[in-house]
Amino acid sequence: MHEYGMVRVACAVPRLQLAACQKNSQGIIDLSKTAYENGVEVLLFPELAITGYTCGDLFFQRSLQQNAVDALGQICDWSRGKKMLLVIGMPLAVDGCLYNVAAVINDGKILGLVPKTYIPNQQEFYEKRWFQPATSLRRTTIELLNQQVPIGTELLFEHQSVKDCVLAIEICEDLWVPVPPGSFHALAGATLILNPSASNEIVGKSDYRRELIRSQSGRLNCGYLYASSGFGESTSDLVFGGHALIAEKGILLEELPKFNEGDKLLITDIDTESLIHDRQMLQGYGDCKELLKEKCYRRIAFDTRPAETLSRKVNPFPFVPGNEARRSERCEEIFNIQTMGLGSRIKHIGNPKMVVGISGGLDSTMALLVCASVCDRFDIPRDSIHAVTMPGFGTTDRTYDNAVALIKGIGATFHEISIVEACQKHFADIGHSMSVHDVTYENVQARERTQILMDLANKLNGLVIGTGDLSELALGWATYNGDHMSMYGVNGSIPKTLIRYLVKWVADHEKDETIRDILYDVLDTPVSPELLPPDQNGQIQQKTEETVGPYELHDFFIYHMVRQGASPKKIYLLALNAFAGIYEKPVILKWLKSYYRRFFTQQFKRNCLPDGPKVGSVSFSPRGDWRMPSDAQFKMWLEELETIQ
Fold it and tell me: Any catalytic annotation for residue 165?
């Protein structure tokens, strides 16, 4: 997994006994064994895990301090010969002061000791009674267990095999202050921030903690591991729930529920390549580097054994939230963005008529629904929408009937203009046989429809509303200067997999039962441009996904190539995980190769897209997110896929 920038990480919540260092070290070793067997490379334990966090004045006992060091030695001995990095909290006496530190261990060696920077001393916390802040430390190395060990807050731990995997540590309260040390660590190059913590549970605190970790990982574009102490801590006045979380780029990947009974592991994979990709895109990272001018980081190398498989859960529908409530919220937000975008444009140019072609398919249905929403939001009569159905050689009764019923049900002005005679005349003019159903046969129809819409808009002093979506633009599945063109494209940054849920969301909230039934039937209709004649039963013969491939695969490819900057081989690996049991390996590989060919060769269409609102993290507007030459070569990308066995 290292070649893809994947590193397997875990948070461990042991079941401890207060001040029982040897017992706790054995528990740490036992959990470490399990983690190692599961391919974990980086393992985080809670704050003061060797002694327990709630030892109070016992921290001053020389016996406890020495036993903690001895326990650390036992853990080091166990780790010898094992390529796994452990981060474990313990108290440590240095030059007459006591510090709350995280010990970093790899293959029997203590790589570094990171002391806590901010010591809480308010409400239920009294840490300053026992511990000194890191700022009081005057050493850069100490001797511990017959090793010369770097000590300090400005330590970075660099993976020898994964160049983008750089670890840094902040401890508990460090995260809760206005400017956490992790912010500087990230600017210095850390892609993973580890936080050994002891955070007690009170009503509502876990929600805030979760949001804090999630937002910090997003702000820093990092992976963030948080492991808090739990079962076994004193309950005299507080309860510690053993809450553990792993976040990446603002997304909570995994969470160990609080109030567990301990001896638990939370395991996932962190994608360090995607972290670096986003940092390269954000100019703010470079702009903030000057904040490090007074800091001097030391870099310490470590190595781990790579996991053989991918443990991380890969979402097959990255554009579509899996949670139903979150998905509904997302759809409502997108629909409002579309409505406000088109509504603002309509108002800006003096309330022109809206002209939109309706085929009875998903995309044109979505565009019509947005037009109707604009009318309702801005007090415009719905008959200002001029909806046009343009039957051709491939139009079926099902799509035609749905288009007509929807236009009339919405209350738009209805137009029916057949393209058959015009296309037949054009075929005759250019000498193309009607029996040859090639790209010319198809594109003549698409361009005739666009010409009708444009000319009708001129006649009505109107605006042609585009219907094409992001997935079609990625694949070039649009006729150049045909359906590829409009005066304002409301669907241009919405992937096909999400369009379906948008239409369903509108249908679910539609009060008119007739319109609701039409929308549900549109959702059940196969995706098709209907440019080839129907089959002998009058059913749709030309099904888009049989030609270009499944849109759910292509949307997956789009997201990981454009949004994450992933390589072809990595996308293939992720797709195998996401679509296991749905698509066989040869099928995924076939459509991934097809995707790259189409994406590169069809850029010229994306370079001249009409205006339209950006709604998500991926957009192909040449004025916004995506700038790419039309003559870029794709050979390198396909050659990488040819190496797959």
Answer: no
